[in-house]
Queue: 2 jobs
Job 1
Amino acid sequence: GRVAKSPLWVFGYGSLVWKPDFEFTSRKVGYIRGYSRRFWQGDTFHRGNEKTPGRVVTLQEDYNGYTWGVGYELHGLQIAAVLKYLNIREAVLGGYDTKLVKFYPQEEEADEPVLALVYIATPQNPSYLGPASEEDIAAQIIVSSGRAGHNIEY
């Protein structure tokens, strides 16, 4: 197959920040606009189970919101390999959809953002838990653990 000439950026705002588990060309701290991070996605695999689902983050559209995270720059053969891996990790196991967003690297002098792929859990996926009080979310996180460890560690 053809190897892509231009880079692909992937924006991580949850476990992709500290545990990407894929090869990348560069990693930059930065933010996206128009979204806020929320513990509204259920997890019955990595941080919970069927009986006690954990809570992990997704993004909620928020006009005034900013979400800080990490942008990963991918080139060439990395792109297909990473997309295949993330499709399993985020889409199949996690129930996340993809969107293209403008990523603003922190250390860039120019205000020019780059387009980045981001995984967002929407209310349409079966694991979506939605909003709850901070107390209820904390209580659920305290009692949940899965294959990747206790939900508190997330």
Note: Residues 51 and 76 are 42 Å apart (CA to CA).
Job 2
Amino acid sequence: MATTGFPRCSDGDVKIHLSSDPKDTFVLHSFQLSLHSSWFKASMSERWNGGDFTNTSVFGGRDGEKEHWEYELRFEKGTGDGMLMRKRASTDMEMMVGQDELIDMRVECLTAYKHLLGAVYHVKPRLPHGSFEKAKSSILQLASVAAIYDCGNIIEPHIDNHLSAHWRDQALSMCAEDPVSMLSFATSIKSEWIFMEAATNLVGTSSAIFDAAQAELQKLHVADLFNKKRAEFVETLRKCEYDMFCMQSEFRGEPFAHEATDFFCQYLRDSLGMQGLGSRLAHPEYARLYKTINASAIDNGNSYSRDLMHYIAVLGIDPVPITDVVMSRFAYVLQRARVILQPILKDASRRRNAQQSQDHGLLFMTVADEELPWVNK
């Protein structure tokens, strides 16, 4: 179980100075650090130290002098990027001091180190509760520090729990608004639910948005995964459109069924061709075609009654005496189309109850657990 206070280990054999302030000096245990971090394990190994511990120093007083390791958090000059180094190591990097001009930037890094060292002793990190953007910055800093020392496994659960408890709704909203940046965020912290949510939203975007994301997907080493998902997504849309066109052969012999189906197929051709909706993904509102058909089926096609009757009249048929029959046939065509469309209208996102406009992309495509980029690595 996580504790809330940072451990003070009087019997520790590792001293870590995070700044020149004595309050930022911590004495910890080498076995605990080595257990959770391959970096510390290598740094304190006999092989690394030449077998004679010449790089260690002695502290503890006359009654308890013992060998130990001593590190300092040093920063690249002019930056907030810090890394632990052996005390007295020859380097141009500098420690943080009280009058540091880069104090704000470096304090965030120092705080991340405190959280990391605390997590080694099962101390829950105290992450920000202010704005989501501020929380993201601190979380990314902590994840970056944990990655340096190869101990993300002890930090990632804390980060995920914090996001779920305090920022779930905001994170899911951001996945819909800016899926590319949230994919990058999720990859950095190895958050399954954020990655999957962002992926569902990105795969279902228009061609312009998806194509613009390629550079970032390449950078994250997930371009192959997303291009594969995108191909599956488009193929599924085309299959639905093909099946709707094929309905023309289902209603032969029924009075006015042919006319009703022809009218529906003409509507499909116009929407896919002239308007660029549907599987062409040419516009952000491409999904309006499918959602309109679904809504019209629920309405029994009443919103199209005037256009349908005009179509019948153009064919040279008086629509007045046959209106009810034609509308009944058209309603049935819409019901069949609605059944065909149900798989792509499924909402696989975690925001299922959120209000979404008719112009929002489709959200049926998901990423499986085994497809996450950090699985089996």
Note: The radius of gyration is 31 Å.
